[in-house]
Amino acid sequence: MGRIARLILICLLVGGFIYIPCAVAGLGSETRAGRTGLPFSPGEEILYDVRWQQYRAGEASIRVLPFAQVKGAPAHHFEMVLKTNQFLDKFFKVREKIQGFVSEDFLGSVAYEYKAVGKKKKDIRLEFFPQNHTVIYSNFDEIRDPIEIPDHCFDPLSSYFKLRTLELTEGQTLSFPVTDGKKFFSQKGEIIGSEKITLKSGTNDTLVVYDTLVVVPYVTHFSGVFEKSLDPTVRVWISKDEKQIPIRIRIRVVVGSIFFDLRSYSPGAGQSIPVSGGSIPKAQ
User: Fold this and answer.
1) C-alpha to C-alpha distance for 102 and 93, rounded to whole angstroms
2) How far is CA 87 from CA 90, 94, 120, 197, 260, in A?
3) From 87's CA, which of 154, 183, 213, 246 has a CA 20 to 30 Å away?
């Protein structure tokens, strides 16, 4: 069970949720940020339940924090906290905090931090140099040589928010540049249609029906559990409203199906709770 749990966690927290959103964000798509403003603001919080098959594995929370100063300039500040539940803690405890920082004009990442405690400690930092088209990766005392990146390149976490600024329509084939500091690659995905899905949400397990766009990212660049799987697939259901929140993410690999399901949503300052066939319960 320990080996299986480890494989699941690697998929969930390394090869799964963090990189999936970047696979469906389209650089060539029209962005809404310059016309109607960003669909999120400081104070927003989104909570996901993480499941393996029918079993709960943990949770992921994503927040929009107040603007931060990076190299003397204001930057959008995002945070994700990932943790396993008490059952999986017995086999492979995960407590991770990830932060992404994006330029004020939302044209690309300017910094990234990824800290993990437990058996696999990490203190990863990415320092972006847009003027030189480079990024430098460090992890504790390990500092790598700079690698070249294209314009408008985003870190894995900030890609989640970049996705939400785009005009998404059925039939689109999308691509997006992303870097983890070790390499740069262009992920691709396709919006294959619309679908209504029903999830349990809120503290009382209220059933909520969501109108969504269904996105299928291409996983050819993914490693780890994806390489061990015969025919791995990923699907992302994104709310068909002005917030464009990923409602569900499903990953099918050799160890089974892994789900990230929206549990609750709390809007940021000046925002209303979006409606996509039903109201998303507020975070408690």
Assistant:
1) 30
2) 6, 11, 18, 28, 18
3) 246
User: Could you give the dihedral angle defined by the CA atoms of residues 198, 233, 185 and 157, in that order, rounded to the nearest 10 degrees?
Assistant: 30
- CA–CA separation, 140 and 148 (whole Å): 22
The residue written with tokens 């939302």 in the block is: 106
Structure tokens at 245: 């929140």
What is the distance between the alpha carbons of residues 281 and 106, in angstroms, rounded to a whole number?
28
Between CA 73 and CA 56 the distance in angstroms is 41
Question: Which is nearest to 251 in space by CA: 2, 6, 15?
Answer: 15
Phi/psi region, residue 219 (left: phi>0; alpha: psi -120 to 50; beta: rest), is alpha
- Tokens 């749990």 sit at which residue? 5
To 10 degrees, the CA torsion angle through 74, 144, 162, 68? Answer: -20
Tokens 């940020």, residue?
A: 33
Judge whether 92 and 119 are in contact, CB under 8 Å.
yes
Q: Are 252 and 233 in contact (CB under 8 A)?
A: yes
Give me the tens of pLDDT residue by residue for the chain, a chain 284 residues long.
Answer: 444 444 444 444 443 344 444 444 444 445 554 434 899 999 999 999 988 878 888 899 999 999 999 999 999 999 999 888 888 788 778 888 999 999 999 999 999 999 988 777 889 999 999 999 999 999 999 999 999 999 999 998 998 898 888 888 898 887 778 898 998 877 678 899 999 999 987 767 789 999 999 988 776 666 555 555 556 678 889 999 999 999 998 888 766 788 889 999 999 986 655 434 444 545 44
Count CB-CB contacts under 10 A for residue 58: 25
Q: Which residue type does 225 have?
A: V
